[in-house]
Automatic annotation (TrEMBL):
Residues the UniProt record annotates as site (Critical for specifying symmetric addition of methyl groups): 407
UniProt entry tagged with the keyword S-adenosyl-L-methionine: yes
Residues holding S-adenosyl-L-methionine: 404, 413-414, 475, 502-503
Active site feature: 570, 579
Protein name, UniProt field: Protein arginine N-methyltransferase
Domain PRMT5 arginine-N-methyltransferase: 393-600
One Pfam match: PRMT5
Bias (Polar residues) ranges: 824-849
Organism: Penicillium daleae
Length: 870
């Protein structure tokens, strides 16, 4: 158990801003306070004016008219060297900016010029653009602007695509240094659609000289769902995952529809009544952006659609996406663009609103929108903790009472334990199994009892099953032990025998001898209260199954040691075994009834999947400055801002999915709305079972006990559908408590096995250096659970493969031979597409197949420095 956090949902504060691209108004404190009265939390402001724009265009024009056309030099370079007279923009003048430092500046988001083209293949345009940006950033920094919105890089230049993004990225790197107190937001569309990259009048891009442009490619421009994400990935990598660099996303969501929901009696009816809702990109694309640091969500007025009553409405898919973003640790600010002037502040004249049909007074008050959006924030799961904040696993130090208290609030865990114990007791009685107690009671021990919630559940289970138990509770934490004593007196009616000990040195339960030599009943043992057996020398039970109740050991105060029939423990960590449950339970393995003994849990398994987790990566990189072991430490963390790289993906857009009413590719055919992100492909790394019949006997030549039987290793292959970046691995666990009673944190099985359980966060195994993953590739994970008999640690390595299409006889095709693919999970072949899966069996004709080509590999990471001491 390793989950910490506040139990109450803190709610989300929404921050709504107003963006008017052609704002000419000088933004004074009075203007800001007027915007506040209209319930806007912030305003955008252009850094420079149209005067500045004209000045730069004028400069460029006169420069070009005096310039010789560029030509190749003797070495043959043109685009990469400029042996020409430089064009330098003189400093800003007072007509070049309306921005003046004042007390309202901190509530402004500065917007840099969108008419520049930092990506231009023409070095003159690219350099001029860079100068404009630098002048603007420097002036914004001088004025005390805290947030800058930088328009998107231009990705298409004739036949060239994304070639100049690296120049853009390099300029942002300079800008970060120039404005050390500014947060930079790169303004991107969700998908790369060349048709939306339209040049406006006065833009520098079309002024690029023909000599530098490649001719238009013959093919029609295509929408690339991950094209803008690719650009973002390059920018943030160039800027080394800088903590002040975020995404400001252009998102065509009709947000004001959401704002209007309180006015509607049955808002969902109105939404479903819409004829043609705006289309969100595929869920895989939404999921990718959800994992990125999106701090501004901009919603354009053109996105609004009207419902039959004339109000703007929002589809459920849109709501779902916004709601998901709002549950992040840092929910984005919402920026409404082109929605008309702020009432009473700006005249609509000169301001182009995309909603000619809607006047600004028709829009709801922003306070209403805030309340509505808070209503969307309903899932209890997300309020429990701060998400995506990496935290090293809990130390093995004694836990504080508050820690136990938080865990004890879990609505599922204890309920499930009680069900498991009840079932185990009923089965024991039904199967008429002999017990280890002379009176026929089932001896049950809660080992690692903490403050005793499982003890309470065991007593309830006994009453429920109608099976008498002799109950023992073992706990090493002396402070928790005080509470166990108190509970025994006040709640448990002194029915429990308490043992303050590390379970590994406990000698087992004691019962009264059936009769003393004199024939009198021994009074000790009915209820021993606090057990003092540690004061006595260890005894040895017989392992002869036929003598499970043979109390041949030396007696203590007329009592004798016996076996435990049912051991109940909860020593699990986020990755199942990472809090040394196997090692602790090994220590009491010999105390368990060798024939009929039961352990609850009976088994547990560790599961993993590769993820993209840019925020976590950035946090880990920052921690590395003070802690060199940070990138080799597994972190317990609520994973929200992540993207699963290997999924049972459905490829349709949200709209298609909505129409088809299909949901997860894992096979659910229920008619639910497809707003869930694709289901991850999670595989089993390894498992442990108890009681463990395979523990080797101690070696006579070694003083220490070997732990080698608890070493594990795995190598798993994960097909990936879309390109992305692997920052690390997400780890989960599943456990079989008893029979069909199971707990799971695995996102694929959690809902079925233990929905709403909150005791465990997932675990995150970071990669020091993120690895790029190609479309339709494979990520192969090699992982170990290692031990040196003193501590336990993990080692992990990731390889990335591209699948190269080949034509070869079927016999020669290289097929991945990985373990861990379980029934119910998509197979590697089926995720590659249907070609392999559907190829005809037999025959030796040449057929299309795939060869794996390794394109990336991490180092072997090791958490040995942070290993868990046994
Ligand atoms: C995760 S807590 C579970 C507490 C309680 N059983 C519950 O479910 O709320 C694990 C408990 O086991 C105790 N523990 C861990 N290792 C132990 C050991 N080797 N011997 C005895 N107690 C141990 C810890 O002190 C802690 O109280």
């Amino acid at each position: 158990m390793d989950n910490y956090g506040a139990a109450d949902d803190p709610g989300v504060t929404f921050c709504i801003g107003h963006h008017e691209p052609t704002r000419t108004l000088m933004v004074t404190p009075q203007v800001v306070s007027r915007a506040h009265e209209s319930n806007y939390d912030l305003l955008t402001v252009p850094i420079t004016t149209t005067h500045f724009h004209s000045r730069v265009l004028g400069l460029l024009s006169s420069y070009l008219s005096n310039l010789q056309p560029p030509s190749f030099d003797r070495i043959g370079t043109m685009a990469t060297s400029q042996n020409t007279r430089p064009l330098t923009i003189p400093p800003l003048t007072k007509l070049d900016s309306n921005l003046t430092p004042n007390e309202a500046t901190s509530q402004l988001v500065g917007v840099t010029s969108s008419w520049i083209d930092l990506c231009s293949p023409d070095p003159l345009i690219a350099d001029l653009s860079r100068q404009v940006l630098m002048l603007e950033v420097a002036y914004a920094a001088f004025c005390g602007i805290g947030y800058l919105l930088i328009p998107s890089p231009k990705l298409h230049h004739g036949g060239m695509h994304s070639e100049g993004v690296v120049y853009y990225a390099r300029a942002i790197q300079d800008a970060l240094n120039l404005g050390p107190y500014i947060q930079f937001h790169i303004w991107l569309r969700m998908v790369d659609n060349p048709e939306l990259e339209v040049d406006s009048m006065g833009d520098l891009a079309p002024l690029a000289r023909q000599e530098y442009l490649q001719l238009e490619a013959g093919n029609l421009p295509k929408i690339d769902p991950f094209g803008t994400w690719d650009a973002w990935d390059l920018i943030r990598k160039t800027c080394k995952y800088h903590t002040r660099l975020f995404v400001g996303k252009l998102n065509p969501l009709p947000l004001l529809a959401l704002a209007l929901l309180p006015h509607l009696e049955h808002p969902l009816n109105y939404i479903t009544a819409l004829a043609m809702p705006k289309q969100l990109p595929a869920l895989s694309v939404q999921s990718r952006w959800h994992s990125e640091p999106v701090h501004l969500l901009t919603i354009d007025g053109s996105s609004f659609l009207k419902n039959p009553k004339g109000y703007p409405v929002l589809s459920k898919a849109h709501q779902a996406f916004i709601a998901k973003l709002m549950r992040l640790r840092t929910p984005p600010w919402i920026l409404l663009c082109n929605v008309g002037p702020i009432p009473g502040l700006e005249s609509a004249e000169g301001i182009e609103t995309n909603q000619s049909q809607l006047s600004s007074s028709e829009y709801p008050s922003l306070s209403a929108s805030k309340n509505t959006m808070i209503l969307l924030h309903t899932s209890p799961m997300y309020g429990i903790c701060s998400s995506d904040s990496p935290r090293a696993p809990p130390s093995k130090d004694l836990a504080q009472s508050i820690t136990y208290e938080v865990f004890e609030k879990d609505p599922i865990k204890y309920e499930w334990y009680e069900r498991a114990i009840t079932k185990a007791l009923r089965d024991w009685a039904d199967q008429k199994k002999p017990t280890s107690h002379p009176d026929g009671k089932v001896i049950l021990a809660v080992v690692g009892a903490g403050r005793g919630p499982l003890v309470t559940r065991a007593l309830r289970a006994s009453a429920e099953a109608g099976v008498d138990i002799d109950l023992w509770a073992v706990e090493k934490n002396q402070n928790a032990f005080v509470l166990l004593q108190r509970h025994n007196e006040t709640i448990w009616d002194s029915k429990v025998t308490l043992v303050q000990s590390d379970m590994r040195s406990w000698k087992g339960p004691r019962v009264r001898r059936q009769a003393t030599e004199s024939g009198a009943q021994d009074p000790v043992g009915e209820s021993l209260g606090i057990d003092d057996s540690l004061l006595y020398t260890p005894t040895k039970r017989t392992n002869d199954p036929g003598r499970a109740s043979d109390f041949s050991a030396p007696t203590v105060s007329g009592s004798t040691y016996t076996y435990v029939d049912i051991v109940v423990s909860e020593l699990l960590g986020s990755f199942a075994d990472n809090e040394l449950s196997p090692e602790c339970l090994d220590g009491i393995n010999d105390l368990i009834n060798p024939v009929h003994g039961i352990s609850i849990p009976a088994s547990y398994s560790a599961h993993l999947t590769p993820i993209s987790a840019p925020k976590l990566h950035s946090d880990v990189v920052n921690q590395t400055v003070s802690n060199h072991a940070a990138p080799e430490t597994p972190y317990v963390v609520m994973l929200h801002a992540i993207d699963f790289l290997s999924t049972a993906e459905s490829t349709g857009t949200t709209e298609n999915l909505n129409q088809n009413n299909t949901n997860r590719a894992s096979g659910s055919s229920s008619p639910t709305l497809a707003t869930e992100f694709p289901t991850p492909f999670v595989q089993t790394a390894w498992s442990f079972s108890h009681p463990n019949r395979n523990i080797p006997p101690p070696s006579p030549i070694q003083s220490t006990i070997s732990n080698s039987h608890n070493v594990r290793q795995t190598r798993l292959s994960f097909p990936t559908q879309n390109r992305g970046v692997c920052h690390g691995l997400a780890g989960y666990f599943e456990t079989v408590l008893y029979g069909d009673v199971e707990l799971s944190t695995n996102p694929v099985t959690m809902d079925a096995k233990s929905a709403t359980m909150i005791s465990w966060f997932p675990i995150y195994f970071p990669l020091k250096t993120p690895l790029n993953v190609p479309d339709n590739g494979e990520v192969v994970v090699t992982m170990y659970r290692q031990t040196d008999d003193r501590k336990v640690w993990y080692e992990w390595m990731v390889e990335v493969y591209a699948l190269e299409r080949i034509s070869a006889p079927v016999m020669n095709l290289a097929t991945p031979a990985m373990t861990g693919i379980r029934s119910g999970s998509p197979s590697v072949d089926s995720l590659k597409g249907n070609e392999n899966a559907q190829k005809p069996q037999g025959g030796n004709s040449n057929q299309t197949g795939y060869r794996r080509v390794r394109v990336g590999m991490s180092e072997m990471h090791s958490s040995i420095k942070e290993g868990c001491l046994m």
